[in-house]
Amino acid sequence: MKTKIGLVDDHQLFLKSLGLMLDSFNSYDVILEATNGKDLQEKIKGKKELPDIILVDVNMPVMDGVETTQWLSENHPEVKVVALSMNADDHTIISMFKAGCCGYLLKDTHPNELERALDEINKRGFYNADAGNINFRKILFHADEKNTLQLSEKEKHFLNLACSELTYKQIATEMNLAERTVDGYRETLFKKLNVQSRVGLCLEALRQELVKL
Amino acid sequence: MKTKIGLVDDHQLFLKSLGLMLDSFNSYDVILEATNGKDLQEKIKGKKELPDIILVDVNMPVMDGVETTQWLSENHPEVKVVALSMNADDHTIISMFKAGCCGYLLKDTHPNELERALDEINKRGFYNADAGNINFRKILFHADEKNTLQLSEKEKHFLNLACSELTYKQIATEMNLAERTVDGYRETLFKKLNVQSRVGLCLEALRQELVKL
DNA sequence: TTTCCATACGGGAAAAACCCCGTGTCGGTT
DNA sequence: AACCGACACGGGGTTTTTCCCGTATGGAAA
Q1: Is the pLDDT of residue A206 over 70?
Q2: Which bases of chain D are contacted by protein, using any atom under 7 A from a CB?
Q3: Mean pLDDT, to the nearest integer, of A17-34?
Q4: R_g over Cα of chain B
Q5: Looking at beta carbons, which residues of chain B come within 8 Å of A12?
Q6: CA gap B163, B202 in Å, rounded
Q7: In whole angstroms, what is the distance from residue A190 CA to residue A121 CA?
Q8: Which nucleotide is nearest to A199 (CA to C1')?
Q9: The pLDDT value given to residue A8
Q10: A2 Cβ partners below 8 Å, 6+ apart?
Q11: C-alpha–C-alpha distance, residues A49 and A72, integer Å
């Protein structure tokens, strides 16, 4: 019997064409297609049989991959979720695994790799792309890194003000502190973010998403 | 005779599955697949027959959709280029049309719409998704807005260097100019972007997507 | 109790950033 | 020929940033 597959992706073209491809693998059968998490919830209700594996895109409007995966693990834990994303951003990968997915595939992997991944999930219950694109050690290492960089509320506040056209004097007034004190915050943040100018501080803060643009 | 199609997209899964789908339309034949513009250039060299239509993704590494389209219009003007993108960002749409594409499709359009679009391009030579997602008036309106802020190549170069930890002195060396000269660029860019500090310049440049993070 | 650490603050000085004043060249317009 | 705009540049000055030297307090840990 064929393995039943569900697809969730907001790009119709990708959704439909990936469906075609999976059907062409001919030990797989796409029985469900949805354009986002909400859509999936509704379509799953009207189904008598659930998919064995659901491939879910990470970046979606309305209800994204992480939320969708969380909902699936809570309400249909027997369904295996495989994340499908275009970016190998460590943070999102971690979020997806935390949410309960059992495999992570990049959209620029080769179709053969996709088939291998599905086979493996059928057999072992999980898939690890040790072959190439995802390095778990690196992920965990980076996860630690994120945790080591913890900023106090005041530091965050300063960082936000530093990412503006205010002078340090104005920032000091804004924070009700002496000029010398905000200078201290500047020094510590320079060290923590490993930069040597205010411009560098802003750029790095934006890169690490500590402040929004 | 079938219409010959070329595909350019950095996501292997999408590339291959879209290829399958187009083949299934059965008046189209995918004869060329590439993962970015550079890749396309090389693969086109070794071909005796060119595709009639090339579908090209806008967001790609190495050589993106705009560059690829420009190259195609210059070197193979007989080939019709159709842009394929996930975002309907007006600015990129304009860039693609300026570069010479004759149609713009979103990745979340329905496969039927894709087929209709291809048919129309075959017949009329262009395709306009008046059905929905792209509003040309809005595009042209925004185009005017964008055009009021035009930067020279040197200004762009300076702007990129200003969004780094380099001092103006180092930037001057980098650009082979006197310190005073880059100071002039600073002044003009401050006025153009309506800011009064280097940090503000960086932030505004990022907001207007004049520089990448 | 002492030690450590986070927080808040002061003075001084070099470097960088900011903002004026101005000159001159070059290519294209009128 | 006179004019204009874009570009490259010089001097000089103020403000801001950056980076040292320190001190003091209060709480948590050894």
Answers
A1: yes
A2: 6-11, 15-20, 22
A3: 91
A4: 21
A5: 107-111
A6: 5
A7: 45
A8: D17
A9: 95
A10: A26, A27, A28, A29
A11: 15
Q: Do B17 and A12 touch (CB under 8 A)?
A: no
| Shortest alpha-carbon distance between residue B152 and chain A (Å) | 23
| Lowest-confidence region among A2-16, A56-70, A88-102, B183-197 | A88-102
Specify the higher pLDDT residue, A203 or A140.
A203
pTM for this entry: 0.65
Residue nearest to nucleotide D8 (CA to C1'): B181
What CA–CA distance (Å, rounded) separates A176 from A172? 6
For residues B103 and B125, the answer to whether their CB atoms sit within 8 Å is no
- As a whole-number percent, the residues of chain B with pLDDT over 90 amount to 31
Please name every residue paired with B85 in a beta bridge, in sequence order, or none if there are none: B106
Q: What is the mean pLDDT of chain A?
A: 84
Bridge partners, residue B3, by sequence:
B28
For residue A106, the number of C-alpha atoms closer than 13 Å in the C-beta half-sphere is 18
CA of B94 to C1' of C27 (A): 32
Average pLDDT estimate for A29-36? 92
| C-alpha span between A206 and B204 (Å, rounded) | 13
Structure tokens at B195: 């800011």
Q: Which positions in chain B touch A198 (Cβ < 8 Å)?
A: 198-199
What are residue B84's DSSP bridge partners?
B57, B105
pLDDT in tens, B80-90: 999 888 877 66
- For the stretch B184-206, pLDDT in tens is 999 889 988 889 999 999 999 99
> Which tokens is B182 given?
């880059």
Strand order in the sheet with B28-34: B28-34, B3-8, B53-57, B80-85, B104-106
Tell me: pLDDT of B31 over 80.
yes
Query: Is the confidence at residue A99, as pLDDT, over 60?
Result: yes
B190 touches strand C (CB under 7 A): yes
Taking the C-alpha atoms of residue B127 and residue B105, their distance in angstroms, rounded to an integer, is 9
Q: Is B28 helix (H, G, I), strand (E, B) or coil?
A: strand
Count of CA atoms in the C-beta half-sphere (13 A) of A88: 15
